[in-house]
Design brief:
Low-confidence stretches: 1-71
Distance between the termini: 51 Å
Strand content: 35-45%
Strand order of the largest sheet: 1-2-3-4
Order of helices and strands: HHHHHEEEEEEEEEEEEEEEEEEEEEEEE
Length: 329
Amino acid sequence: MTQDTKEPAPTTRRRFLTRTLAAGAATFFVPRVLAACDKVEEVLGGDVGDVSLGDIDLPDLDKLLETLTLDDGYLIADPKTGRLYRIDQGAHTVTQLETDLSERWTFGGLGDAQGELNFPTSVTPHPDGSVYVVDSGNQRVVLVSADGDFVRAIDGASGVEGETHAPRAAVVDGDGNVWVTDPLGHRVRGFDASGAPLRDIGALGEEAAQLNGPRGLALDGDGHLHVVDTGNARVQVYATDGTHLRSYGGYGEGDGRHLVPRSVAIAPNGLSYVADPVSGAVQVYDKAGVALARLDDLSLAGKSAVPLDVSVSANGLVQVRLHTWAAET
């Protein structure tokens, strides 16, 4: 009897999470648009369930799709303003869009000069309207003004001459400090609001406080850093003073297990979502790091898909950026 009453719980929980974590069309973070239009099943290849939408303007889906390419472009929503940032890794540019999809500015183009980028991987909005762009190919983080102008760059993202590093993700804490994952240096680097080095967190290894190729990064409501410790298949949690607090996840298959995790997002309710493209699943954890659910068997336009990244949209929905492959001929 006890076994029968507990058995349906994971299924029920997964149905609930499917309604609040909808897959993105093409490779972008705007399920709120899909949920509000009549093309959900056509684009996603399945029903995403009922989604509670905030009082926001929704752009036309056809127009939205025209702004993207499947392989080289995707959108990130700014939870504070609702504006969208289009990262086009093929063109090496970042574009800021209004909520009606009108273009405000485009920054970048292949190169290493002040106004150029080389394989941007992340956009982090700053409270004053400026944004930090992780310019991975140029080994730096670039601060772009609210008007799309170059302000300054945090060069190297390693601070050690002669080292080669490729920063992947960045967040800005409540004091304006910038935190950047450095997967080749096996650490998170901190910089103050002026771009001066603050401190490094982590070092290569598999012990409790160590890291191996960290990629994704998120801040929770307490201001703690959640670092995707990719090589160790877990998420490490640190205070910004460098203190190691805890970890969750670990290597393996099944609930609370990862193969090669690469992205993490913290929802407004404190739940943590971790995307693992190799296992093809998004794992969901509570504030204490207890595994709640595993979302797998994801699809995009009727094709099997894997989760690349997770993010939080302007209306608080947690969203997944999916990748799929064209059918073989």
